[in-house]
What does this fold into?
Amino acid sequence: MNDVILEMKNINKEFPGVKALDNVSFSVKKGSVHALMGENGAGKSTLMKCLFGIYSKDSGEIILDGQTVEFKDSKHALEAGVAMVHQELNQALKQNVMDNIWLGRYPKIGGIFTSEKKMLHDTKEIFEQMGVDVDPKRIMSTMSVSQRQMVEIAKAVSYNSKIIVFDEPTSSLTDKEVEHLFKIINMLRDQGVGIVYISHKMDEILRISDEVTIMRDGQYIATKDAKDLTMNEIIRLMVGRELTNLYPEKTNTPGEMVLDVKNLTGMYSHIEDVSFQVHRGEILGIAGLDGSGRTEVLETVFGIATKKSGEIILDGKVIKNNSSLESIKNGFALATEERRATGIFGILSVLENTVISNLKKYKKMGLLNDHEMRKDTEWSIDSMRIKTPSADTQIRSLSGGNQQKVILGRWLLTDPEVLLLDEPTRGIDVGAKYEIYQLIIDLAAKGKSVVMVSSEMPELLGVCDRIMVMSNGRVAGSLPVKQASQEKIMELAAKYL
Amino acid sequence: MIKRLAKMLFVALMAVSLVACGGGDSGSGGDGEASVHVFYYDYGDTYISTVRTALDKELDGMDVSYTDYDAAGKQQTQTEQVQTALSSGATMLVVNIVETGSDDAAMTIINAAKEKDVPVVFFNREVSNEVVNSYEKCSFVGTDAKEAGIMQGEMIGDELVANFDTYDLNKDGKISYAMFKGQEGNNEAIYRTQYAVEDADKKLEAAGKAKLEYYDSANSDKYQVDQDGTWSAKAAQDYLATALGKYNDGNNNMIELVICNNDGMAEGAISALQTAGYNKKGGDKTIPVYGVDATKAAVDLIGQGVMAGTIKQDAEGMAKVIALAVKNDVAGDDTFKGIDDSGVEGVKVDDGVAKARIPYQIYTGE
Amino acid sequence: MFFKNIKSRFNEIKEMDTKDRNRFIKETLINNSLLIFMLIAIIYIQIQRPQFLSRESIINIVSLSASAMPLALGVAGAIILTGTDLSAGRIVGLTACISASLLQAVDYSNKMFPDLPAIPIIIVFLLVIALGALIGFVNGFCVSKFSLHPFIVTLATQLMVYGVILMYLMNGDNNGQSISGLSSGFTELTKGSLFKIGGTPVPNYVLMAIVLTGVMWVVWNKTAFGKNMFAVGSNPEAANVSGVNVALTITLVFTLAGALYAFSGFIEAARIGSNSANTGLNYELDAIAACVIGGVSFVGGIGKIRGVVLGVVLLKLIFVGLNFLSVSVNMIYIIKGLIILVACAIDMRKYLVRK
It folds into this structure.
């Protein structure tokens, strides 16, 4: 079972001024998982886009099952048996599961009417085969990200795909869901499907993949058997230098108590009786499973989710934080989890994204002072090493890490006392993550208090001073980081389940 | 929250009561009275508003209750209004039909009225003889649509013949004119557009003068129309302002006559002329502008000497004849019984069909 | 600055290989197709009808554009919020009728309010602006507080305003007549001219529109309100998290729009000279068309003042040009529709993620 099913040979792609792919070759064997790794901008997605015909390659050859192919678009590719499960699922959320699977090729009766019966039957069959328990008639928007991902995989399976590309499939999954996903990937592999697995998470890659191809700066670096690789080796190949530490040295020292949250209960969310304290210069991590109420705690403290009862005490004074506006005045800042949905203004410039929370500062007789705004934006770009062509570049053309830095910059300009960060490194590659960690620690060292929610336990253990674990809307416990371990956190996370 | 809701409710109630007080469309009346329902094609029409005021006054003085409706220019709305009125027990329908292009809409109303044996008076916007003859309790009060155009043409012709050289600004022996049409597909607009020029030409030819010449030889329509179909002053204003950019004294090809389908458009045309330095009160350069309707504004402009003339549509006369028809129908008499004593001068009833015609009058100043 | 740009651009082009250069040229052509189309149209019409670019004609085009400008500037704000405003035309109608009725010549025989003394123009102006702003405020309040789509809200208010217009026209001795006979002070202020270009007077409302456009440029680009408007249009969720008062911003955008419509109404009252229930009808459609032609996108958060100006001028150019060419009305409809479609399609290209 070691025949090559997909081969991409000497692919070149140039954008104005950038060589995005420089003679890259890549091949996937039947019935194996091939991980594609590299920092953001290394060319992974460009390579995949060339495969799916989203970009037209300048030169090179793509051979599928012994035949040269050139797909016009992803639908064309799908029909030829090459499918992709995207990081951000593009699904018709208001429709039900089977509508999504059969979208665009509904089984028809007499060429006019769609056959619900056949759709239901076929969907059930695929789900059974995959061992997935989802009602085919459920509306997509009512399901979790993980379940929606399963639907996406089912769709790929329904096309009898020979190649399935997974793009960051675990970035919004809980550990349990990841296990399930891996089971399904293994099953697909056993059925002879060639799998391309794109991810930043080393441990996952080492667990699931057979081979690993590493790219850097648009160039092919190496392909190795996964069993011969170590995490440090991968990082060295990806970054091109030794990255001895995944986490920066901690230079902050917690001081006196700044924020005291007492018995916080949500009006419309399930968080109940949540109490915690944050000290000056401290980084408090909030761990827990997806849906345990971590995000809701931050949103309720920040006033964009309504609280039913509870007190927020900042510097000894009871404050209300009934709206984001009020919270900002009180010295809070929130970088949200869904960066694209609630963080950035995609079509606006880096400058506009930077100054939006702080416009009052630039007012002079009712008008905004361009010079001051530009100065602060340049400061933010410099001090956080944001990689952007200019302050006037549309933010959506930046990488996720740089977008996140812009958002952090936005909040730093308001000079907050308490920073609330929800999944600050989601979807960001290793090198950039390190820089974000550094920024967070630097802020704490300057006396800011940071509350940080994350699904990645190693990150919490590496950056925080204390970790609070949520379980089903309640606080399950709080551990100094020195006493914490992944096992202990998991144990607490399951406490109220 | 509840407080706020209560506040909103209160405001809403206030608004409703305000409308109810301000409306006053329904005349008072006790039980057993005739229930007259009057359907106007569009409250936004200036002339129709005049008829409405006059007719309301007439009906107030009669022993009937009445209700006014606005179809806002939509036949579908009107048909639904008629059906609702009939089901609520209307005993008399007075209809200013929206759709004049075909008989269908009118026949729908006739058929519905027939079922309940309710008399129908159509007015202003003409329905065909077949419609009126299809139901013995149907009649029409209006004008002779062609007459307005013919009279406007004759008025223009007479004036031009009398002072041809004054109006022929560039002395080329021809009068160049602009024509603004109120609406596409409307019979009155079509007739006025056609006859105003034809009958003016007849007068000119009879006096041995050249026919009128449309100012823009490349325009085969020989008119410009309000694209929104609202006979609006704005359309005439924008067209004429644009035309004056090309045709003016400076180029020695000035438009020498402006004919409009109604007075609103004439007002717009005058506004455009005034912006360009013509037709100012007491000024020396005045281009003759003609309209139809004799609205108060037009009468005033004519009084100022900046507008040449208009055709009077006798709104009060029309209201009187409609009221007469209503009275007779309610009493079960012949619809137009006693029309000669109605005090409306020159009103005529067509032969063989129950259609009363209110005459137009030329108005060129007191 | 401008030339430096061109120079560096030129150098960039020189450095590209043929394929890139071709693509660059193609993109440039497509992105500026509106301007190119405008130029070609102007040249064509000018060859056919040499009067087209005469002084009088140009001033006419400018005047027509100026009269449509305030309205378009108002609607543009609503579109940037991914909304729309159907009440614009009717607000123009109401404010035009009220302006006219309060500013009729004292000796005019058919005054709506026969005993009304001469009111200072500025008071009437402020009154109608306040009224327009109030209606706009109602629009914005309903949109922001009840989370209703502006389409629905303004559809509703548009009807209500029309009802008020009809009622208003029945006031006093008016009987639904159109309102004319405006005081000379009023018409002079708006239609009169401070200066002439080569003997052709430039109406004052052109100056007003230019000043207004300048003010709006500052509001959009140099004020916190403007930045907030774009932020809310671009991503309301993110704006909320960022501490932008979203509800207030939406309300203000519509209030400002209402005031701009009233400004339009005030000018239209004098410009047309005859104000009836139909004044302002369908104005919003042209205004919306001008905005989208000028690149104000329904996607939200996208739009520039110069785009709005371009859109307004283009529409008026088409109107005047087609009239000069004596094109029949039927064709004018078709051409206008095509331009809107094509302009928006081209514009959308810019914002789609490039692939």
